[in-house]
Amino acid sequence: MKTEQIMAKLQAKYPTEKEYLQAVREVLESIEDVYNQHPEFEAAKIVERIVEPDRIFTFRVTWVDDNGEIQTNTGYRVQFNNAIGPYKGGLRFHPSVNPSILKFLGFEQTFKNSLTTLPMGGGKGGSDFNPKGKSDAEIMRFCQAFMLELWRNIGPDMDVPAGDIGVGGREIGYLNGMYKKLTREHHGVLTGKGLQFGGSLIRPEATGFGAVYFVQHMLHTHKDNLDIKGKTVAISGFGNVAWGAATKATQLGAKVVAISGPDGCIYNPEGMTQEKLDYMLELRASNNDVVAPFAEKFPDAQFIPGKKAWTVKCDIAMPCAFQNEMSAEDAQMLIDNGTWLCAEVSNMGCQPGAIETFQKAGIMFAPGKAVNAGGVATSGLEMTQNAMHISWTAKEVDEKLHTIMSSIHEACVKYGKQPDGYINYVKGANVAGFMKVAEAMLAQGII
Ligand code: 2IT
């Protein structure tokens, strides 16, 4: 396999899909060595097959807004790869959604899901619908219209969607309601459901909690066997994932000194309290996409307009917002300010230049597909509970989440430890995720 040759072909075929091309390049570059030691992969053209989604559904979603006006959006579901299990991955409602973004997310999801140790393939979907400023009734009508198209192509053993940016518990409830109405089946076709109708305890917290558990494992690999207690943490974003990470980091004795939104950054030198963590959820639920009111409510915090969380001095940086949110300059600024660990929590949150900057400086860095896999892993646990018609306690789910994050970390170390002792988590995660999917494809023939 020659990464450059494959990339040139994909570039010619999908010249505008920059996020997709970026995600594929990162994976191919890091698996190339290992791949080339497996002539059976090359003979079966595994790479040429794995970079293309199995199929993409594109559909029109028409709904009526509160003024009685008819609105039309585009909906998608990318079924990327089901070699190891049913397609699994979130739905994103955001104006930036397009095939490139959903293909990058579906591609990443395939390797992430493989890392979780659970039998889940990769998928992703969503719409260019913008939830910002929409009323509850508008959100419901949009979700119903979206499901009116999607339902034919999903199923508990076929494709199991969940939330992502712009899709939380409320949206999953409306989507599930419409699916149930259309099919007359109640069988766990979505995850992230409410607890009253088949949801799993810990699922809302799981992405952020899992990310912090992963950071703890990274810290333990340090020669001084470090702990998160007493460390300062800067987090970008103020959504569900940022909230989960801030909650767990605070519970374990770290000080969360920054969160951020599209309007700027909150400098929070005293760290989080329960009241502040609860307010993060309130801010998000308001659907206004601004973080500034946090500093009005808590006078010990300060709003810095237009700035990212990376301007705040911290030990540990955890990007929890959006793809490509951290540039090489941001990474350099963090390093100059003394940051020594970055755990990417958002999917592809760091630009390639940022990753390179961290790695060249010998900073511990781990990629989203390993760090944030606790979210989808807990979705996998929700699927299991639904299939068994039981529900586990929070303690049981949290223990399983701990075990899964520990296995993911171990897999990254196995494939990513360099002779000089530095752990290349990007390589480790990509190779570990890839091997299982590739072997499963090989075993199931040319399809
Ligand atoms: O990026 C992700 O892993 C998610 N948005 C969660 C997907 C899931 O199926 O829970």
Keywords:
447 residues, alpha/beta, Rossmann fold, 2 domains, seven-stranded mixed β-sheet, five-stranded mixed β-sheet, 12 strands, 48% helix, globular, binds (2Z)-2-iminopentanedioic acid
Structure description:
The strands form two sheets. The chain has a seven-stranded mixed β-sheet with strand order 9-8-7-6-10-11-12, with helices on both faces. The protein is built from 17 helices and twelve strands. Helices cover 48% and strands 16% of the residues. Helix 2 (18-35) runs parallel beside helix 5 (99-115) and helix 16 packs across helix 17 (425-443). The protein is α/β, with parallel strands linked by helices. The chain is globular. The chain has two domains: 3-185, Leucine Dehydrogenase, chain A, domain 1 (Rossmann fold, 3-Layer(aba) Sandwich); 203-366, NAD(P)-binding Rossmann-like Domain (Rossmann fold). The protein has helices at residues 3-13, 18-35, 39-43, 46-50, 99-115, 136-150, 169-183, 203-221, 240-251, 274-285, 293-297, 328-336, 352-360, 368-371, 373-388, 394-416, 425-443, and strands at 55-64, 70-81, 87-93, 121-127, 159-163, 232-236, 255-261, 264-267, 302-305, 316-319, 341-343, 364-366. The mean pLDDT is 97. (2Z)-2-iminopentanedioic acid is lined by residues 88-90, 162, 164, 191, 347, 372, 375-376, 379. (2Z)-2-iminopentanedioic acid binds next to strand 3 and helix 15.
